[in-house]
Amino acid sequence: MLFTFEGVLITLVNNMINNNNNLFATRLGATDFQVSLVTSLPQFVGILVLIPGGILTDRMLNKRKMVIISLMCLTAAYIAIGFVPEMGKYRYFAFLILLSLSAGPMTMYNATWQAYFSDVVPLESMNRTYSVRIKGTFLISIIAPVFTGLLLASASSNSGKIRFHQSFFWAAGLLLIFQILVLKRITGGNVKSHEGIRFKDLIKTASGLAHNKRFMGFIGVALFFYMTWHTDWTLYFIGQVKYLKMNEAWLGYVNVGGALVQFLTISFWSRINEKTGVRFPIILGSLGLALCPMAMIIGTSIKSGMGATVFLILNTIFNFAYATVMLNILQCLIQVIPQVNKTLSISIYNALVTLSNAVMPIVGVQIYAAFGSDRKALQLTFLIVFTARIIATGLWALRWWRHRKEIDW
Description:
It is a single chain. The chain is mainly alpha-helical. The chain has 16 helices and no strands. 50% of the residues are buried. The model has no long low-confidence stretch (mean pLDDT 86).
């Protein structure tokens, strides 16, 4: 239950901050390319801290300590970001720099939480425990976007909207303090630390992973999947705001639609996991993500003013199996990750995923620009993304087929 409450708090923070960063940057004067940097540049900072952070965490008796340190640093960063509108003509660059710096502790939180969670929760209880946590986070993802979207839409001036963005960052800092208090109440997680681990062990660990066929098979499929997923992150914002003419409230409705379907289906997919294992359902999750670009293509093709409504409906429907992505990828990773230097191994994996998140949104925007930066260019780019995601779905299916006779959980 404490893991669920902790998950609800970090999800509330992410919904207030991450869902609105592109809007905040736009109001601070960012161009389309600069908006893509808001997604990409913080990921490069995250990559820099993952490996040394993983080494340091593996030296600790209990990884909760690093989880809490990460949240404390994130609290300080978010409070500081709340003041960037006061920095005049440098406010966008101040926002970009501070947001990028905040990605360090957020990335460390995600990586160390995964390792800490697997230390505390037994394998046989992991699917059930993680399902309850994700269900709670989906519930918050239904409520929070509507609340923040309506608040932003209620402001009649740009300066008023910026004030709301500031308050979101300060509120996030307060919520993170509560999250730390919740984490301190979770017991267990003490494991044998690796006090002798040094940077030279990075080479040894990476070499071991490279010769681990199960890990390499998983990372090959997962990384390609993430690359196709990350390509359109900035493009979605451009499509929604520039071509579908969505305001803050409508952007919130899109997030709510996806979160509502995920909340309603998470228990179903958790039961499917219990019956089939975690490798099969993710195929359907990947298929749903493959269809999402079609929602944007269809929505931006309608010229009757109903494009936004059609996109909202289709995007909501295509999230029918997205819960399996959130629920199953971590469990698939834990299946193949070695116990020795576990946090460092997870950090290497997360570094590769974070690199994709740093590069691919820029790649997506550059493809869009190369086609002409207009409605047709957007649709062609989403068609490319759709094709790539269909291939990714086929790779998940191939992985399941190859391992179908192995014991799954």
